[in-house]
Amino acid sequence: MNQLDHWLLPDGVEDLLPPTAGKLEATRQTLIRVFSSWGFDYVMPPKLEFIDSLLTGTGKDLDLQTIKVIDQLSGRLMGLPADITPQVARIDAHSLPSEGVNRLCYAGSVVRSRPEGFVGARVPIKAGAELFGDRSIHADFEIMSLMISSLHSLGLDDIHVELGDVSVYRTLIEQAALDASVSGEIFGLIQKKARHALVQLTKARVADPVLAGRINALPELCGSASVLDDAERLFASDSVALSAVERLRALIERLASRFPSLTLSIDLSELRGFSYHTGVGFAAYHNGSGRLMARGGRYDNVGELFGRARPATGFDIELSSLLDQLPSTGIEETEPLVDVDTVDQPTKAIEAALWEKIAGLRSEGYRVIEGESEGKKALKRLQFDGSKWVLEDR
């Protein structure tokens, strides 16, 4: 093996170096403070779990993203978490088995078997919040409001939120009673918004023309809030789909009232997370670049295999993908770097006075380097003037 290979990291894996690592950690701590101020309690799930609990209710996509290993103690299959939400659901169901509402939050890294997209990270840092035990629309509104407020706390203000509801698609497909392969093909065409191919497929496979028409309409039910008027007319006789439309209307109106600068849209063909989402889903994008900043949705009953089928809704923010959009933390401005002048053969009194001065400066927010500071531009120097230590500009 070439000696250089010892220093290589796998594709999609990288070190976080100064100042990026400091910026990300400051961002993480900001979000934890915001979550806490909303009443969400911080949890730290482990970086290794048995597969049967780690992938509960999450579907095939997360299974493929999970790196698996054999536990040498038990012989059971374990996995490195590719998503933290299932772990938090386990904590709610098993470790904090309250009958009331649990509000939990987290911030940490996950590990993926492959990157998402061409430049995605395989060890991204995620922060998120989950609300368990409340199936009301207010819980969805609360968690979406927290997502938007969290992005605002990071200086991300030009936000576009897109809402959908997988229960609309789910009820239509259940009514059609199709084979899994046909349902999968329809799913893919809706995601691609390939309406012509979708019409041809439903014409051949869906016996009820009214139902086929509703399925075919999904790719077109995207855009401004006025889309909900079209959906309301289309699903007038379908109580499940109509209820979902009414929820979306209520949510979009309340969000517009609380966040007047927010851009809002509807997309009933957006089915990301379909394998485990059960109701409203949402995503936040940067208006300028169109980059995804956060996403979430309702995933009721994910804890059923843990013995507690709880209502749940939540979101997460992938911090590592947002770093270039975040404003500077200003560490150099708010925490000036100080280096220390050397004194030949200092007395114990001089050493004691130096230590006291350094401790005081650090408690005030200064970054003090006692040794060499090559490569770091110190703004101030701590010097001994013959009787005391004095902080001076360099």
List the helices and strands and how they pair.
Layout: H1 20-37, E1 41-42, E2 49-50, H2 51-54, H3 60-65, E3 67-70, E4 77-80, H4 85-95, E5 102-109, E6 125-132, H5 137-153, E7 159-165, H6 166-176, H7 180-192, H8 195-205, H9 209-217, E8 222-223, H10 227-234, H11 239-258, E9 263-267, E10 280-286, E11 292-298, E12 312-318, H12 331-334, E13 337-340, H13 348-363, E14 367-369, E15 380-384, E16 389-393
Q: With helices defined by DSSP (H or I, 4 residues minimum), what is the helix count?
A: 13
Q: How helix-rich are the residues, as a percent range?
A: 25-40%
Write the CATH homologous superfamily of the largest domain: Bira Bifunctional Protein, Domain 2
Number of strands: 16
Overall description:
The chain is α+β, with helices and mostly antiparallel strands and 394 residues long. The protein folds into 3 domains: 14-155 and 293-329, Bira Bifunctional Protein, Domain 2 (BirA Bifunctional Protein, domain 2); 159-287, 2-Layer Sandwich (BirA Bifunctional Protein, domain 2), CATH 3.30.930; 331-393, no CATH class. 38% of the residues lie in helices and 20% in strands. It is built from 13 helices and 16 strands. The strands form 3 sheets. A 9-stranded mixed beta sheet has the order 1-5-6-12-11-10-7-9-8, sandwiched between helices. It is elongated. The model has no long low-confidence stretch (mean pLDDT 89).
